[in-house]
From TrEMBL:
Transmembrane helix in keyword set: yes
Keywords: Membrane, Transmembrane, Transmembrane helix
Domain of life: Bacteria
Pfam families attached to this UniProt entry: Peptidase_S41
Source species of the chain: Candidatus Borkfalkia excrementigallinarum
Gene Ontology MF: a single term: serine-type peptidase activity
Transmembrane segment boundaries: 16-39
Occurrences of domain Tail specific protease (ranges): 197-438
PANTHER family, A to Z: CARBOXY-TERMINAL PROCESSING PROTEASE CTPA (PTHR32060:SF30), TAIL-SPECIFIC PROTEASE (PTHR32060)
GO biological process: proteolysis; signal transduction
Protein's UniProt name: Tail specific protease domain-containing protein
Length: 460
């Protein structure tokens, strides 16, 4: 009996001993693995982790972990070009929605350091309020009698200088469902006189943006998205371009290469054919580009000399030396245009990226010549008028574990012509044979006298 008890005690003691040994071994393995991992990290990463540890243990104030890591990411991003960017998971969700044409807010964008409207997104609350490129938003408020100036004035060297940084602060105070009362003027960015201004209420909402506006014969149309599907809709009451387009010419404005722009362009091409027009002005002014895939889809309608349904439209040369050929998503030119039809393009210094690539496709396949391109030439400008000159491509990489993403410049873009043209940092210019326009004072004049001049040149 005593021997049995002794054996049980020894058995229990052995279990405890072996458990302790196993625990110690596990600890050794864990720390060995940790240090092995630690010392396989690049020296910079080890330094950053060491610094983070010291800040956490020794710094006299708490430093938020999220802010620390964001500062590290911001530092890395500062080494990249201006087209590359880091997105948090929430920011990337907004980017994805925007690329699908889903947005929320007023739908207004402004020229840099200005309260001049660059664009009222097609289908947005601002669009249906009748706001257009070139109008100045000089005030904003929660009520018609509570409008505050979007600008401040100061004296510098005997001259009045205007600052428009208040615009962003005022407009950011409105959320979906709110009504903003905007004071707008066609006179100047600091106009407040009642006789030169009007108050426009705009209720912020979630909306699906359209990217193609068609005009011919005094009427304007676009695909309006209500209930999820795009309906070809007469929108003449919201725009002024319809008043400028007449005769045998039709007009298509392409604002960006996103969303359902391919389908919308196809619907506009159908309207062009149904209207029996024989010349088309494609307006790419202030179109900063977008998705390569959308460009491939739209290019399929604009390749006069294409022989197959998958002709090359762009070649990308990546930093690692790899090359990739991007091809058109079809060949529809002859379905909507005749060999006698003439296509023209309007562009300016904000015409960039996919827009320039599309122009390269049209030039490469004989759809247009340089003499069919009109480029904004601002008064007093001495250098050749040109498009933006962005011949590089970005690729976005998503982290599947966190939802965050990084957009990186990955390749140079080359046209499908014999010279494999790359227009990066050069653009398409009037030195190439493009026509400099007249009557433009800015890249978004109210009432668009430049467009009137271009249309008169086409009709001449």
């Amino acid at each position: 009996m005593q021997q049995e008890q002794k054996s049980k005690k020894m058995s229990t003691g052995k279990k405890v001993l072996w458990a302790a040994i196993a625990l110690a071994a596990a600890a050794v393995i864990f720390f060995a693995g940790f240090f092995t991992y630690y010392f396989t990290l690049p020296a910079g990463a080890r330094s950053l982790l060491w610094m983070k540890d010291k800040i956490d243990s020794e710094y006299y104030e708490d430093v938020d972990d999220g802010k620390f890591w964001q500062a590290a990411i911001d530092g890395a991003t500062s080494l990249l070009d201006r087209y590359s960017a880091y997105y948090t998971a929430d920011e990337y969700d907004v980017v994805v929605d925007s690329s699908r044409g889903i947005s929320q807010g007023m739908g207004l964008s402004f020229f840099l350091n200005s309260n001049m409207v660059a664009e009222a997104a097609l289908g947005s609350p601002a669009f249906y309020a009748g706001l257009e490129t070139g109008i100045f938003v000089t005030g904003a408020g929660e009520a018609e009698d509570a409008v505050e100036n979007t600008f401040t004035a100061s004296e510098k060297n005997g001259e009045t200088v205007y600052d428009y940084s208040r615009l962003s602060k005022l407009l950011s105070g409105f959320a979906v469902g709110d009504t903003a009362y905007l004071r707008v003027s066609a006179v100047s960015g600091h106009e407040t006189a009642e006789e030169n201004c009007k108050i426009v209420p705009v209720t912020l909402a979630r909306y699906t943006e359209s990217y193609v506006l068609y005009a011919a014969g005094g009427e304007a149309y676009m695909c309006a998205y209500e209930g999820g599907s795009g309906v070809w809709t007469n929108v003449s009451e919201y725009v002024s371009v319809d008043e400028k387009v007449s005769g045998g010419t039709a007009y298509i404005r392409l604002t960006s290469f996103y969303g359902n722009a391919v389908g919308e362009f196809g619907r506009a091409a159908q309207a062009y054919k149904e209207d029996g027009k024989h010349s088309l002005l494609l307006d790419l002014r202030n179109d900063g580009g977008g998705s390569v895939s959308v460009m491939q889809g739209i290019a399929a309608y604009l390749m006069r000399g294409a022989e197959s349904d998958s002709e090359p439209v762009m070649r990308a040369v990546y930093g690692n030396g790899r090359e990739e050929v991007y091809r058109a998503h079809g060949n529809y030119y002859s379905d909507y245009f005749s060999e006698e039809d003439t296509i023209y393009v309007a562009a300016n210094a904000n015409t960039a990226s996919a827009s320039e690539a599309l122009m390269g496709v049209m030039l490469s396949y004989g759809t247009i010549g340089y003499e069919d391109i009109f480029i904004t030439d601002l008064s007093g400008k001495t250098a050749p008028a040109s498009t933006y000159g962005k011949g590089i491509m970005q690729t976005t990489f998503r982290n599947p574990l966190t939802g965050e993403a990084v957009k990186l410049t990955t390749a140079t873009i080359h046209w499908p012509d014999e010279a494999s043209t790359c227009i990066h940092d050069r653009g398409i210019t009037t030195d190439d044979g493009a026509i400099p326009t007249e009557d433009a004072q800015t890249f978004g004049d109210w009432d668009d006298a430049e467009l009137r001049w271009i249309l008169s040149e086409i009709a001449a």
